[in-house]
Amino acid sequence: MVVTWERPTNDGGSPIQGYIVEKRDKDGVRWTRCNKRTVSELRFRVTGLLENHSYEFRVAAENAAGVGTPSAPTVYYKALDPIFKPGPPNNPKVVDSSRSTVSLTWGKPIYDGGCEIKAYIVEACNGASDEWFMCTPPTGITDTMFTVKKLLEKHEYQFRVCAINKIGVGEHADVPGKILLEEKLEAPDLDLDADMRKMINIRSASTLRLFVPVRGRPAPEVKWGKADGEIKETAQIDNTGSYASLVIENVDRFDSGKYTLTAENASGVKSVFISVRVLDSPSPPTNFMVKEITKTSVTLTWEPPLLDGGSKIKHYIVEKRESTRKVYSPITTCNRMSWKVEPLPEGGIFFFRVLAENEYGVGLPAKTLEPIKISEKPQPPGKVSVVDVTHSTVTLTWEKPEHDGGSRISHYEIELSPKDSEAWSVCASVKALETVVTNLLKGEEYQFRVVAVNDKGKSDPRQLVHSVVAKDLVIEPAVRPKVSTYSVQVGHDLKIEVPIAGHPKPTITWTKDGAALKQTTRVNVTDTKHQTTLTIKDATREDGGMYIVKPLDKINPPEMTLDSELRKGIVVRAGGSMRICIPFKGRPTPEISWAKEDGELPSKVQIETGEDYTQLSIDICDRYDAGKYILNLENSAGTKSAFVSVKVLDTPGSPLNLTVKDIKRESVTVTWEPPLIDGGARIKNYLVEKRESTRKVYSNVDNKCTKTSYRITGLTEGTIYYFRVLAENEFGVGQPAETEKAVKTSEPPLPVGKVTLTAVTKTTASLSWEKPDHDGGSRIMGYYIEMQPVGSEEWVVAATTKTCEGTVTGLSAGHEYLFRVLAFNEKGKSDPRALAAPVTAKDVTIEPGFKMAFNTYSLQHGDDLKIEIPVIGRPVPKVEWKKDGHALKETTRLNVSSTQSSTKLYIKDANKEDSGKYILTATSSVGTATEELTVIILDKPGPPTGPVKIEEVSSNYVTLSWEPPEYTGGCQINNYIVEKRDTTTTAWQIVSATIARTTIKVTNLKTGVEYQFRVSAENRYGKSSAIVSAAVDCVYEFRVIARNAAGISSRPSQTTGEITAKDEIEAPEATMDSKFKDLTVVHAGETFVIDADYTGKPMPEVVWLKDGKEIDQTTPRMEVKTTLTRTILTVKDCIRIDGGHFVLKLVNVGGVKMIPINVKVLDRPGPPDGPLEVKGSGQSIHLSENDDQERHERKADPQLGGSSH
């Protein structure tokens, strides 16, 4: 539809930039935009409408300030094609007449004008008066038949019929001929019931019964026949005056075909045909031939069977038989109509056959009649000569090849090439030794060559010696009689031969005594190419006189003859062949051109033209070969054209204009138009299929859709789909039409949630809102904030944002505004959500403050701390952070940031220095607000507060005390851990790990031993470092008491004073086999042992190290065994990485002893270190690499058996 409008009366103070056209379906709710780009004209053609849907339209203007208010909508208009008066009714004819009535029938008009035919009008004209009168009521009749009554006997009448639609009365169609009303005999009539008019399907081996009622006066003579063969001799035929019957028992595939029934009496003849299809296995494939033979293969081709047995051919079975054997062996089963059989033995002789198979079984074979032997290609043809040349044709002749290679020459191919070009193309294919090459370009120069072809291949070409220029060869016509006077006796014969010349061949005329010579059985003229001959038998006196012979350059316009079959049109099954052969004449010989009505001729079309005929052929037809083929003939006398309609029975082409409309979250609507090519049969239904973009295969949605639109439901929201539609007719499913672009199942989003006014000044307003509940299946791309001054009717987009908040600027102080928010995605805009109340643009003062959710924040050591506190106040207050009375210093680890509505503190990898009290201050012109918050870092505690106090010392116990840690780790101290160490050793022993107080009595000490103690605190997050006490000695005093035999003891002696008992200290030492002093070499897979004896007081701690790391139970393949005096390191099944630097380490209070041992494991080298560096010049390339460590070591020490790479 085309929508037009006028400019708005008010352009809003800015020039109109364009217009936006919107439509709304009567069945829909929403307005949709029609134009993608802005329309600058005052009219717009709206496309993509659904037929029979009603639409209303509106238009909005757009200038620099935005889109204006749309116009008032139009009334609803229905989308329909324009309609006209109907064409003439189809094929009106008389079906019966009597002395006063005539019965007429006709078909609906081919063109109904675009709307329904309502009625028909029949008019008659009496030949006596030549005036037409209406036979039907003025409003017409709805049937396509009518009996005209009350006519006058023995009068002649003409009749005509018109169709009426709602536009009016259409063109009339005349009933052929004049009808004489008289009582007449009844012509034969055969009454076929509806089932017989259709194809009759019958299973093989069943009985076929055909029964047809017969009418006519006198009783007609009835004959049965078969269109494409003879009726079986066993058929039972029973004909009477009132019916005809045909019964064939035990039918087979050859009983398929058209059966004709003819009834004849004095009043006329009536014939009908009945189509019978016997459901059987197929007949032999047709045109079975050997296409190509090589030394090891044979290529076979064939065409579908004439009789498919009433079922689609499933596949073909190809078999071979050696000439020395009697049984065929299978080669393959294929769906194609060609197969290359390989490998075959060179020189072998084979028979081949192919059989078609359908659902009823394997059919009859098509065989090669002669054995196939690999033979040579033919020799080249003999000399090639030019016979004739015109401006568009060249006539060539050639001689047969000397040898045909053992196989008969099937045809010759003529190839042409424009001079100075190497591209040869086949221009003709003939069986004779002569051809006319047509459609040459006038004045162009061509080269020609001829190739002989047998059923084994093509010969080498024989080229015409000289090139040929396409131009008319003109020789003036002339007659050259040898003598001018001839004498003959009466009763004798006279023969006068006159040579003639001229090109093209002239027409010769003879006159006698100034009048055209009359030819009789006695006087005769014959013409050949180079002479004309006058023959007079039994001459009489009257034959004497003046004879004149002269050339007449006669021209005739082109003529062509189309037989009745071609006029009806050609119907061919897909895969079959098609031939159109049309004889023609004309002088000079017309130029011939073939064309196709709806496009170019297919490349597979073969055109063969002789002197008086032209033939167009296609070997294997498909749906695209259907249409009108037009032949044009032209010479200097005129032009002539004719067309032949070709219908190819095939599956349909692809539907047209596949479009996806009305895309929703879980559904889409697809529409299309019927295929241009219906395959020669009515489209029964369409198949609708879908495919997700992540899959490769289409799945079926509906295979019985009869409309040209379909709503696909049950789709997954937000998924990308492809769709396709295929048409189906009685021959199968046709070509698909697929959507070019992917379709995402989505729609505009739902409205946003609650809209809140967050701030307002005299020039700005800030809003926030909640995301929509649903994004429509497609990501939300942003939001529009629209505003409307109170009192105005126009909403304008004031701001666009990608987040759920935004600020509108440029407001006028004191004015009231309405605001609303819309979300939009790739499918469009949501419905708007409005702010509840209007907003007045003015500054608002609010005292500063904080919305504190918590005053205390706890986190573990090493975690990140993020504190965000909303800030209120108008104007926006300045926020300051302090800690321990000082302004907070920002570092790479500690960061403070503030917005108009909040302040944030961020501490990365928090530690105990970050714990404490933070003061937060907000200051503005209105006032000041202060808040205090506490940060607790949860960590293991600091060490207890020292020193460790020795409260009491005795010979076997010590009492210790200490103070709690200054830093508790942010939580309660669970316990303390006390450890002791004999100062002669390095090992600490736990005394107690569950001490709740800050004091302990350590008992069970050895008298005279010096001890050290250490104390650590523990909370839920770990253990602190320890504080260590000074050394404590267990001190002894001695005294002596004497006792006699009576058991009486003396007073004790004086004490010796305090004596400390101490062990002797000896530094660790070790002895080892001398072989370990040098490099120890072992082979991969062996076991090696390193052992040593050691001493030391107190007993040293033994540690084995490899490459600086301690060897323990988890080290693979290595085991350490240590006794009081000896330690052994065993390495089992060693590999390359077990080599290296080993150290035996002995430790006690007397010192540390370390003994190194170097071990080398011989193994294959490791990969070179990359990357590989390539350096090159024009003649050489140098590769270098980083050698691995092992290679260097091998090069350094030849004893290791290494070799350079």
Automatic annotation (TrEMBL):
A GO cellular component annotation here is: M band
Keyword Ribonucleoprotein in annotation: no
> Pfam families, per this entry?
fn3, I-set
Q: Which SMART domains match?
A: FN3, IG, IGc2
Domain (Ig-like): residue spans on this chain: 188-275, 481-547, 848-936
Which GO MF terms are attached to this record?
A: structural constituent of muscle
Domain Fibronectin type-III positions? 1-82, 88-184, 284-377, 380-473, 654-748, 751-844, 943-1044
Among the GO biological process terms of this entry, one is: sarcomere organization
Does the keyword field hold Repeat?
A: yes
Domain of life of the native organism: Eukaryota
Q: Which CDD domains match?
A: FN3 (cd00063), Ig_Titin_like (cd05748)
Cite the entry's keywords alphabetically: Immunoglobulin domain, Repeat
Residue ranges for the region (Disordered) are 1163-1205
What is the name attached to this protein's record? Titin
Q: Please spell out the taxonomic lineage of the organism that makes this protein.
A: Eukaryota, Metazoa, Chordata, Craniata, Vertebrata
